[in-house]
Write a structure and sequence with these properties.
about 110 residues, mainly alpha, about 0% strand
Length: about 110
C-alpha cells in the first residue's frame, strides 16, 4: 500500500466519523452506499482494507457534494495526509463570466 492510498484510507476514516457528527449518520450512510465504502466507526478496524482505492475516491467525490465546508475539509485533510485528491475535485470550474466570454468569442467567429 503506497502513501497516497494510506492517506486516502485515513481521510475516509476521519470524514466518516466527522461527517456523522456534522451531517448526520443517515447522510454519511447514504454517501458510503453510493461510493461502495464500508462505514466503520473504529479507525483501527481491519475491514477498512476491504475498500478499494476507486471506492475511496468516489467517497471523497460524494462527500464533497455535502457543501462548501465539506470541500474545504477535503482540501485541508489532503494536505495534512499528503494525499492527491481526484481530478474531479481539483479542476477549476468556469465562472459565469468565463462562460459568457467563451460564448461571445464563439459568436464572433
Amino acid at each position: 500500500m503506497n502513501q497516497d492510498e494510506t492517506g486516502l484510507r485515513e481521510m475516509v476514516s476521519i470524514l466518516g466519523r466527522r461527517g456523522q457528527t456534522i451531517y448526520g449518520r443517515q447522510s454519511i450512510v447514504k454517501t458510503c452506499t453510493k461510493a461502495g465504502v464500508i462505514l466503520i466507526d473504529d479507525p483501527n478496524d481491519e475491514r477498512h482494507d476491504d475498500n478499494s482505492q476507486e471506492s475511496l475516491e468516489r467517497f471523497l467525490l460524494e462527500y464533497s457534494k455535502l457543501g462548501p465546508a465539506a470541500r474545504l475539509t477535503l482540501l485541508i485533510l489532503s494536505k495534512q495526509n499528503e494525499t492527491t485528491l481526484p481530478k474531479e475535485l481539483t479542476r477549476k470550474k468556469k465562472s459565469l463570466v468565463d462562460l459568457v466570454s467563451l460564448l461571445s468569442d464563439f459568436m464572433n467567429q
